[in-house]
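Case study.
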Amino acid sequence: MNFLEERILKDGIVKPNNVLKVDSFLNHQMDISLMEEIGREFHRRFGDKNITKVLTIEASGIGIACFVAREFGVPMVFAKKSHSINIDSEVYTAEVESFTHKNKNNIIVSRKFLNQDDHILIIDDFLANGCALQGLIAISKAAGASVEGIGIVIEKGFQIGGQVIRNLGIQLESLAIIDAMDSDTGSITFREQ
Ligand code: 5GP
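After joint prediction, the assembly is written out as follows.
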């Protein structure tokens, strides 16, 4: 069991509707030592790639992506959720359905911060159905940049996103993959990696 799986078992709370709460250490209160370890682990897994930018989506990806970007010594860019439907020529946009909030947002990234010379590492806290990642991939493509890999802290392997993204042929590294979880018993089963 790796450092993250141990922490999920200790402090994660399984909620109904396939939601895992990890807000005591990952996406509300953040354990900074754990963030540093996550940053180092993604660098170990993607360090052979010539990464020029780390890309994530607000809000909960930002903190994690900062620690990853520091390991690579590159900028971190985050896609903003925009409530405006105006397509501004200054931005790349994609539509993303939120797993947790069940609403749709346009996400935007300024054209100033991504271009065809960029080699992107996408980072996010969770992978569920893959909508957030598909939006970030679409924005990278619109910029003409290459997606070198995707790093996810917690993949819920019983939802479709992991398979969808792996079928695209992009290197996807998830630090913990949950194959099953039960809100009645609180049990969590990890995939052997
Ligand atoms: P997807 O787009 O893959 O369906 O969902 C990924 C996004 O939804 C992540 O950015 C994350 O913020 C949120 N998310 C998905 N599942 C969970 C979950 O079980 N717990 C929490 N806290 N966030 C989740």
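Observations recorded in class. Residues 95 and 106 are 4 Å apart (CA to CA). Residues 19-21, 27, 60, 99-100, 124-132, 161 surround guanosine-5'-monophosphate (CB under 6 Å). We will return to this complex in the next lecture.
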